[in-house]
Design brief:
By secondary structure, the chain is of the alpha+beta class. Helix content is 17%, strand content 34%. The protein is elongated, with a radius of gyration of 19 Å. The protein starts with a strand and ends in a 7-residue tail after the last strand.
Amino acid sequence: MKETRYLTCIVCPVGCRLTVEMEDGKVLKVSGNECKRGEEYARKECVNPVRTLTTTVRVDDGRLLSIRSAEPLPKDLIFPCMATIDNLAVVIGSGIEVGDVVIPNICDSGIDMIATKSLFPS
């Protein structure tokens, strides 16, 4: 069955209005893009959408630590990942530096959650 999807490209500030023609879950044609990156974005977004997850996790002393996924996660894993994060308390130990892996291989995705700020014992 043919389907048409309309997207706004978010790869650059231009914000091209994209039209994606699909059939049986496959992209047939992308139009409206000013550059090749827009076409690549539309194809990925329609077939396997991904998002960078940015959130906070509680550490063992009660403070919050900001974290993000090291790479974009499949969109359908966002809520399971958040449920996992909500049930954790990260041990701060001697401290956490920016870029440290806080949660390895979240939800068996192969993607780590990393610290976006440093946090040291009080």
